[in-house]
Amino acid sequence: MRILLKPMFLLVLPLASFAQKTVLPGHPDINTSRLKPGKSLYTIYYVKDNNWEKKGTYTNDLTVTGNELKLAVDYIDDKDVWYRNRTSVADAKTLSPVSYKSAGLKNSLDLKFGNPVTGKYHDVKTNKDQQLTIKPAGKFVDFNFMELLFTSLPLDVGYKAEITQFYYDKSPDSVLSNYIIKDVKSYVQRSPKTGKHDSWLVNVLEVESNAIYTYVIDKKDYRIWQREMPVGGGTTEICVNEELDYQPIEARFDKVANLKKLENGNSVIMGTAFARDHSGSNIQVINIKKAQFAPQGTAIYILPNSNYLDEWKAVNKKIRKGKKLSEVPIDPNVAGCIKKTTVYDDKGHFEFTNLMPGEYILWTSFGYTHRYSYSYYAGTNYLMHPSGAVLSSSNVYNTGNGATGATAEIEEYVTIKNDGDKVNINLKDTR
Fold it and tell me: What is the C-alpha to C-alpha distance for residues 117 and 129, in angstroms, rounded to an integer?
């Protein structure tokens, strides 16, 4: 009898461990220490037939004050047609809801959770208020905290749970709805910024609509990488985590300091921008050592160099070598610190003034005509014996001239040592 009971007991254990449970605020499965304060940004896409249309973004901002968690969620339409701000407060240990506020173009809502739930609904169009008194049956989680609740659970293969949420939508009679975690499996999330991440693939059933929501939740830091939900007509809404905490470059770009370097000094950089042709091993260049000056009006750019730019270049060089991750985009403030001048004559001359001491990056691009001469095989000369025998032969070569359009791409680093210095440089591209 003991021999039979042992294997039967082992079979029953997994079923008991993964049996569906009801998880409400205060349930021991909820571990709020996994909820890390800070901001996370998601881009919202509508996807149909592999076509991705950006619809907007939303930002989660979680803060902890004493015994309360505060979650502010801001939704912004990509075309600035709509917005929605939602702010929820919950108990920091149990996730029991405390208050909820929302504001949008059409209405606003202000709720205090208790027994009963009280609040005010405001219609923007009619400018009328509706006082609310709601008596939901049983415990629930504020819907604004629902997704974070998922990340607080001890997810594992086969984990199941049912959760009741509170969501008010004009009617106080139908504010509670149930969601069931139907399936949890291992998954590998691939980020273009940080590579592979071991994650959970969590399928959640919305009981009322029978719709399935799919979440990708990191096994290590519990962040939500992605959420998918059907929105009708064969379209799926996919929200993608943009990894605001991804900071591969430690140095920060100081826009104010860099603008000061371009405007508050007494130094000058003067120069000439040109290209110079040199001969290769098989081509004799006609205009060898002849300068091809940048045309009048050619744009010349200058930018103060910085630790940020050096690190940005080094990081992207390493990424290109690895060929696995996307390159780090440059800080958008850099564009505001680029100064421009133009070549003022037909000899490629340009000037920058009001510069402070420091290192600068100068660059330009312009087109010119690359002229060259070349030799080509034209036939063979033969020395013939009267008998018709070939005594010797020699190849005959002729010469020709050609021209091609070329583009000069020039970048130079220039250092000003002392305030008031005049530095003369050549921006030269050698072909």
Answer: 16
In this prediction the pTM is 0.68
Closest CA to 111 of 134, 127, 92: 134
| 3-class DSSP state of 135 | coil
Per-residue pLDDT at 191 exceeds 80: yes
Task: With CA atoms as reference, report the closest residue to 202 among 180, 171, 178, 234.
Answer: 180
| CA count, 13 A, side-chain hemisphere, 94 | 10
> Rounded CA gap, 398 and 241, in Å?
65
At residue 163, does pLDDT exceed 90?
yes
* Per-residue pLDDT tens over the stretch 382-408: 555 455 554 455 665 656 565 566 788
Residue 193 CA to residue 311 CA, distance in Å, equals 16
- Whether 348 has a pLDDT exceeding 90, the answer reads yes
Residue 38, CA distances (Å) to 33, 41, 148, 245 in order: 13, 10, 13, 9
Amino acid 414 reads V
Per-residue burial over 18-30, b = 16 or more CB atoms within 10 Å of its CB, e = otherwise: eeeeebbbebeeb
The pair of three-digit structure tokens given for residue 274, joined into one six-digit string: 């040109």
